[in-house]
Design brief:
The chain has 444 residues and is α+β, with helices and mostly antiparallel strands. The chain has two domains: 2-104, Ubiquitin-like (UB roll) (Roll), CATH 3.10.20.70; 117-412, Creatine Kinase, Chain A, domain 2. The protein has helices spanning 2-5, 32-38, 108-121, 141-144, 168-172, 175-188, 214-234, 278-289, 295-298, 352-368, 395-403, 406-411, 414-432, 437-443; strands at 10-16, 22-28, 40-43, 69-74, 80-81, 89-97, 125-138, 192-197, 203-208, 237-240, 254-261, 320-322, 329-331, 341-343. The longest helix is centred in the middle third of the chain and has 21 residues, at 214-234.
């Protein structure tokens, strides 16, 4: 560590707010030793900012507390390099505690940590892998505030304007970009696995390898999102995890795969058959039971709800099935020993800590309550949607389900429900107070 302290590098220390945005400080390396042992002070209220970084006065953490500080302690043993930075820089991911050292539970990483502990108390360890989709954009997209597919300069010089799912040629044209992504992932310890060209023009998915540390899996997802945007800027691209950047193209999803190990390391979802164990079915039942409650976590923004359309590879009601990508909860075909659940609801714009906390918490409740799921769906789930209650398909409806949820109060905590619910209410008020261009075009 002494070599690091003597370095001329700056470093960023950041926490993740409830919206998944990074909040923190950039500091000189001379302060690193103090940060590693004592942490950094940030106001508790930072966790509950709205999407634009404004205080949310209704959450009870601002004036009522004198805008008191929490202590942000690094979760890494040493700084991690930021390979895409223009000048030498490192980063540290942190988690917020109260001044007395107790966990600050509106912190999304603390919430997931508590869910994982509840599994551990039952003798189970979640094994998790994430799949994040994103769009590469033309470098001018951020300034114009309008998405445009990138031009592959080192390929054939064409703009990626057509869907070319699973195309190897499309990735060949971006070989330099993906090589730097892979190298940056290795430098930061992010276990990136396969790279896939997806359904939209310039849309890609990078899958993470499974890990038996669910909190670390969320850390990787958070760092990966920052990494993709940083490397994209180096190549004069933009990158977005926005749920639906193009109205007529595929949305960006965030799929979660998970299984459970017992204390002997056995996968408790495996009973030697393709059907899976009773614990798997109980977990599925919990996921289906609490999907509407958690929709505001899986789809946190106004734009998020544009993903949920029949035939758009995003589920519109709580459903499950075996090897079926039209349902919300899929049991993938696999060797029995790898029997697992895939949760297919969340958008890539969601906070990974909260997504994993809501998914694992719902599965845990299903197991603890010994719930039973309905019959699995075979065939096209979209064709059966009229037979089932739809998931909340608008932001404000999701907020109502969220605030009425006894499950979320119990498993993710009343502090989280209050602070997150207040932030979403403020965001809705801000957006709905603005008059859109389409209204002027239609009514002026």
């Amino acid at each position: 560590m002494s070599d690091i302290y003597d370095s001329n590098n700056e470093f960023d220390l950041f926490i993740t707010d409830l919206n998944g945005n990074l909040r923190g400080k950039r500091m000189p390396s001379s302060g690193l030793k103090s940060v590693m042992t004592q942490g950094v002070k940030l106001p508790h209220s930072v966790i509950g900012f709205d999407h634009w970084g404004d205080d949310v006065l209704e959450n009870g953490m601002v004036f009522e507390t004198g805008d008191s500080d929490g202590i942000c302690l690094p979760v890494h043993d040493a700084p991690i390099s930021v390979p895409w930075a223009e000048s030498a820089r490192d980063q540290l991911l942190a988690m917020m505690f109260n001044a007395d050292g107790t966990p600050f539970y509106p912190d999304p990483r603390q919430i997931l940590t508590r869910i994982v502990k509840r599994f551990k108390d039952l003798g189970y360890t979640p094994v998790v892998a994430t799949e994040l989709e994103f769009y590469l954009l033309d470098g001018s997209s951020e300034a114009k505030r309008v998405p445009s597919p990138p031009v592959i300069v080192d390929g054939n010089g064409c703009r990626l304007s057509k869907t070319d799912c699973y195309s190897i040629e499309e990735m060949d044209g971006l070989e330099g970009f993906f090589a730097e992504v892979r190298a940056a992932c290795e430098a930061q310890g992010i276990p990136a696995d396969t790279i896939i060209s997806e359904l939209g023009p310039g849309q890609f998915e990078i899958n993470m390898k499974h890990t038996d540390d669910a909190v670390l899996a969320a850390d990787h997802a958070i760092m990966f999102k920052r990494l993709i945007k940083g490397v994209a800027r180096q190549h004069d691209f933009g990158a977005t995890f926005m749920a639906k950047p193009y109205a007529d193209k595929s949305g960006n999803g965030f799929h979660v795969h998970f299984s459970l190990l017992d204390q002997k390391g056995n996968n408790v979802f495996d009973n030697g058959t393709e059907e899976g164990s009773s614990l798997l079915k109980q977990a599925v039942a919990g996921l289906l039971n609490h999907m509407s409650d958690s929709m505001l976590v899986f789809a946190p923004h106004l734009n998020s709800y544009r993903r949920f359309q029949n035939g758009a590879h995003a589920p519109t009601f709580a459903s499950w099935g075996y090897e079926n990508r039209t349902v919300a909860v899929r049991i993938p075909e696999s060797e029995n020993i790898a029997r697992r659940i895939e949760h297919r609801v969340s958008g890539a714009d969601a906070n990974p800590y909260l997504v994993l906390a809501a998914v694992l918490g719902a599965a845990l409740h299903g197991i603890e309550a010994k719930m039973s799921p309905p019959e699995p769906i075979e065939g096209d789930a979209y064709a059966m949607s009229e037979r089932f209650e739809a998931l909340p398909n608008r932001w404000e409806l999701a907020s109502e389900s969220f605030l009425d949820s006894a499950f979320l109060l119990d498993y993710l905590g009343p502090e989280f429900v209050r602070v997150y619910g207040s932030a979403k209410e403020q965001e809705q008020q801000k957006i709905y107070a603005r008059i859109s261009n389409v209204e002027y075009e239609a009514y002026l």
